[in-house]
Amino acid sequence: MEMRGEENIEIGEDITPPLLPLSFSLHDSFRSSHCSSCFSPLSSPSHPSHAPLYCSAACSSSHSAIASSSSESLLPPSSPLSSELRTALRLLLSLPSLCPHLRRFNNGLLTNHHKLSSSPEFATQIRQGAIAMAAARKSRNGDCVLDQSDSVLLEEAVLCLVLTNAVEVQDEAGRSLGIAVYDPNFSWINHSCSPNAGYRFSVSPPNDTSFGEDSSSTLRIVPSISEDESGVCSCSDYMEGAKGYGYGPKIIVRSIKRIKKGEEVCVSYTDLLQPKAMRQSDLWFKYQFTCSCRRCAMYPSYVDHALEELISNPSSSSLHFDFDLYRDEANKKLSDYVDKTINEFLSVGDPESCCMKLESVLSLGLQIEQIEHGDGKSHLNVKFHPFHHVALSAYTTLSSVYRIRSSDVLALHSRTDESLFKAFDMSRISAAYSLLLAGASHHLFCLESSLLASAANFWKQAGDSLLSLARNRVWNSLGFLVSDLSTVVKYKCSKCSLLDISAAEFFSQAERANVENISSDFLACVSNMAPMIWRFLINGCHYLETIEDPFDFQWLALLNRDEEHDGFVNESSSFEHRAELYTNERRIHIYKVGIHCLMYGVILAQICYGQNSHFTPILNLGEYFVN
Ligand SMILES: [Zn+2]
Ligand SMILES: [Zn+2]
Ligand SMILES: [Zn+2]
Hints:
Blueprint: E1 2-5, E2 21-26, H1 57-69, H2 82-94, H3 113-116, H4 123-140, H5 153-165, E3 167-170, E4 176-182, H6 184-187, E5 190-191, E6 197-202, E7 221-224, E8 250-255, E9 266-267, H7 276-287, H8 294-297, H9 302-307, E10 310-314, H10 323-348, H11 351-364, E11 366-371, E12 377-384, H12 389-412, H13 417-447, H14 452-470, H15 474-477, H16 486-489, H17 506-511, H18 515-538, H19 555-561, H20 578-581, H21 584-609, H22 618-624
Parallel strand pairs: 5-9
Antiparallel strand pairs: 1-7, 2-4, 3-4, 6-8, 10-12, 11-12
Helix pairs in contact: 2-5, 4-5, 10-11, 11-12, 12-13, 13-14, 13-18, 14-21, 18-21
The chain binds zinc ion (3 copies).
One zinc ion is lined by residues 35, 37-38, 40, 54-56, 59, 205.
């Protein structure tokens, strides 16, 4: 099955109304902090308990009967698929019949039973889960023991349905609170690695209208049976019983590209900032299919190439090193090193050593060996290209670890000028990494527009960190008061139209599909200001000093040609005096670039998520634009 546009759809429009789930469940780790019925956070989280908790009487009365009659409390504690098992048990209460082929319930949802229950990864888990479900259902009815002869096929099919159709429900911080299964209007939307639609959740307590869902949005997509599926299953009472319980976390689908009438609408089931092989193995592992979307078919496109590109530096003795033979090995060795470093940080928590190790592998790389025909070995030094997907996630880690180091300095030392400056240095480098991450992901987004959500998120983070850098207390101690910035607050940029867009109107502006113009204006404008802040931001950080420009990556071409090249701005360590480094002019530039990044991130987020989503901090923008 697939879903197609019922009419022409512009970029950044809701294409479904808020859809209610058929069944859902919080993950174990959120059961003591969030409402089991609407998923909103509880005002007073309690101790972990087996019973579901609710935010309000309304949520309790709508959901507690289902939770208790589903017999989920009789599941063995902490089973590996516990949220899936709860979702499946709750779904069983409302499901109409299953077709004899076990392919589809007549609410139209595919079970994928034959594939999942024969896959080596899932078969045992599905079988054990189904037995646990059947035992719980049976003991609720007073029968204590599940008989060997009892069929668990129904439970297996429902569990497969949940594994195939459930989506992770995320809160505003991007945390996965739980899972939910939606009706075919969402579940029949197929995957693409270059999708034209995305989705968001609306999680709010009953009667809370503050999220202001646009109730006028209607369903603008229609189902269609793809050729290879017609006739496979004659049980065609699709959608007959497709109704849930009338509450729970809602999902809304939204276009992120222009969609023509009749064109298939797709969303992504995986992380799009991964190279092809990783997307494919992720999709195969979770859903047992091989993606043949446009982006996968065009492989290697520039974006997919960049996401796995390595830079190799042969020493003079290894001229015959056949790097292609060692590419996978080198990729794995480098990625393992980064994973190990991040895990070590998460368990031991030494931020300084984490930064040192990540920056050393980013700037120096690792050595791999080639055994020569004789006895000798030759060596090759390999490192990540700045757009490699592991490098991108290393920037994310470095940005947050430097932020942690900054607050550690303030917490652990007396607030002398020296510690203020030291903390500022850490915040400065953290901001530089978030700016590099935004610039690099933007470069990829310009060629693969489905990376919109990542770009929105990274620009917003870069904007936030630059603005807080411009307001850092260190400037006060130099005589540049935070209040000085109030002259900039009303600042309108003379070089681009980005900041003319007021909070009230930029949504419609974006809707007018003027995004490409806004993007190129924005990039030209920040590129113009970058030289005034970049060297300052990266001062003293060896890896970042090899990045000549965070927005305009033409220097990368040079990097590939000139193997000996190691750094463009070596003279940058030449800031000798504090007075030379910390000028009010520089701080105002940081502030201006910050406003640009934040505003642009908000515009992209509006396209992805709409005007009233949790992501769009319109309320905070008031701080920057005082009228
Ligand atoms: Zn609730
Ligand atoms: Zn694909
Ligand atoms: Zn501008």
